[in-house]
């Protein structure tokens, strides 16, 4: 390991000495970056925008972090990389599993050239960490720090620096003051660890994701939108701290290095959470055995069910042991369900912005594992797919929710023509490879 006074560590590369910095800001929308750079809250990002490309970017569908980050790091859609949500179905039945890094069917970009050393810190859905040429600290969901770190001999240093995988989000339900304190503490620990790796490891690619920005949005999006909110200043202060850290890394990279800053999805104000399975049950499409409300208890005459956030699966006879939807009825039932959710309103407001059949969204060898329909919520609504809800619309503790079309991408070191006018998360790997070849 190189000491902090040893200067830039040697780069292990493939003949090119160009270095790449990738910074992720989980849940930060394009319009927030546009506003915060214009107002001077994020001056370092403003400087990057002034010399690079700044684009609004489409997220994955559904717009959840595990799907979007898996697409960002592989350059593939869920039908190819295999991650459709935070939960997924076990093959051939009603069991539910929690996909993780071992479920990813396509390697991330940093594993494709074994000669390029990389430092990868806090990328979501990359747990458990696995051997690679460099350093890997997995992001959430990571229940065990010991298995989130490669190489394992880094664990004592991480603990000494107070590193944590995630913020204690439970604090946001009880004390916003303590939540903000914890949020900023986790951020500073992540920066300390990243700075240690920056100086202490040989690398060609350095990727760091800040996930606290997503947690901030969930609990305090109203504080961002309302300048009179008592925590408006604290919201902006956290963004300023993130921007300051990005500026330090960009300065240390120098003008020859390539920089990508991006988000996985956007954010917007939340008004109500919608229980998708409660809608299906109300209209007779979902039934349970008496006294039970669980996926394993759905009856043979159930037509469909949902998994978070709005992934609908037909109860197909060829896919599920008790499935009663025949192959011949698939199109008819799909059309019925699409019409049902297209017309769904709460307090006069349309709930679903768009409805997608799996063939419209996904391609690849894992298409059969995809949900049959995916709903994208309209502004202000968040889709939930638990099985015990009886009310269709409820209000929870969150002030903000994910939005699909409003992620962002900043790229310094790429020709403007190499960046699509409206990139998608699956385009990121191609952009990165272009930049590593010299832009």
Task: Offer a quick outline of the entry.
The radius of gyration is 22 Å and the shape is globular.
Q: Would you write up a description of this structure?
A:
The protein is globular and about 65 Å long. It has 2 domains: 20-270 and 400-436, Alkaline Phosphatase, subunit A (3-Layer(aba) Sandwich); 272-394, Gyrase A, domain 2 (2-Layer Sandwich), CATH 3.30.1360. A hairpin with a 2-residue loop joins strand 14 and strand 15 (349-350). It has helices spanning 30-38, 43-51, 65-74, 78-81, 155-160, 171-174, 176-200, 212-225, 232-253, 276-282, 330-342, 358-361, 428-436; strands at residues 20-25, 53-57, 88-89, 96-97, 118-123, 134-138, 149-150, 205-210, 258-262, 266-269, 272-275, 304-307, 311-314, 345-346, 349-350, 352-357, 373-377, 381-384, 393-394, 400-403, 407-412. The chain starts with 19 loop residues before the first strand and ends with a helix. The protein is of the alpha/beta class and 439 residues long. The strands form 6 sheets. An 8-stranded mixed beta sheet has the order 2-21-9-1-8-5-6-7, with helices on both faces. A 4-stranded antiparallel beta sheet has the order 12-13-17-16.
């Amino acid at each position: 390991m190189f000491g902090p006074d040893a200067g830039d560590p040697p780069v292990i590369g493939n003949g090119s000495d160009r270095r790449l910095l990738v910074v992720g800001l989980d849940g930060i929308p394009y319009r927030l970056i546009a506003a915060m750079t214009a107002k001077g809250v994020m001056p370092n990002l403003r400087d990057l925008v002034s010399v690079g490309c700044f684009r609004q970017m489409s997220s994955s569908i559904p717009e959840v972090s595990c799907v979007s980050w898996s697409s960002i790091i592989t350059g593939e859609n869920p039908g190819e990389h295999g991650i459709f949500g935070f939960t997924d179905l076990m093959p051939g039945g009603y069991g539910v599993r929690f996909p993780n890094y071992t479920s990813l069917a396509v390697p991330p970009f940093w594993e494709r050239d074994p000669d390029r050393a990389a430092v990868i810190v806090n990328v979501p859905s990359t747990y458990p960490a696995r051997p690679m040429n460099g350093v890997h600290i997995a992001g959430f969901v990571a229940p065990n720090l010991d298995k989130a770190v490669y190489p394992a001999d880094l664990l004592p240093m991480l603990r000494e620096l107070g590193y944590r995988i995630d913020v204690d989000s439970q604090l946001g339900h009880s004390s916003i003051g303590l939540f903000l304190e914890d949020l900023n503490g986790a951020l500073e620990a992540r920066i300390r660890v990243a700075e240690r790796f920056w100086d202490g490891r040989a690398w060609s690619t350095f990727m760091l994701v800040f996930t606290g920005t997503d947690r901030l949005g969930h609990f305090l999006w109203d504080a961002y939108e309302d300048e009179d909110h008592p925590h408006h200043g604290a919201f902006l202060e956290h963004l300023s701290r993130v921007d300051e850290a990005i500026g330090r890394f960009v300065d240390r990279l120098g003008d020859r290095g390539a920089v990508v800053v991006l988000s996985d999805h956007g954010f917007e104000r939340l008004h109500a959470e919608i229980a998708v399975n409660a809608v299906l049950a109300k209209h007779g499409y979902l039934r349970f055995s008496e006294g039970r409300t669980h996926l394993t208890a759905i009856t043979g005459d159930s037509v469909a069910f949902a998994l978070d956030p709005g992934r609908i699966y037909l109860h197909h006879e060829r896919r599920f042991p008790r499935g009663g939807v025949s192959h011949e009825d698939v199109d008819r039932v799909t059309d019925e369900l699409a019409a049902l959710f297209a017309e769904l309103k709460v307090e006069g407001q349309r709930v679903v912005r768009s409805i997608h059949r799996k063939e419209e969204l996904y391609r690849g060898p894992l298409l059969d594992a995809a949900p049959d329909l995916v709903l994208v919520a309209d502004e202000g609504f968040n889709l939930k797919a638990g099985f015990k809800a009886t009310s269709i619309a409820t209000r929870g503790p969150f002030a903000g929710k994910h939005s699909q079309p409003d992620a962002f991408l900043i790229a310094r070191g790429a020709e403007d023509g190499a960046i699509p006018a409206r990139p998608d998360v699956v385009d990121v790997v191609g952009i990165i490879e272009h930049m590593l070849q010299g832009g």
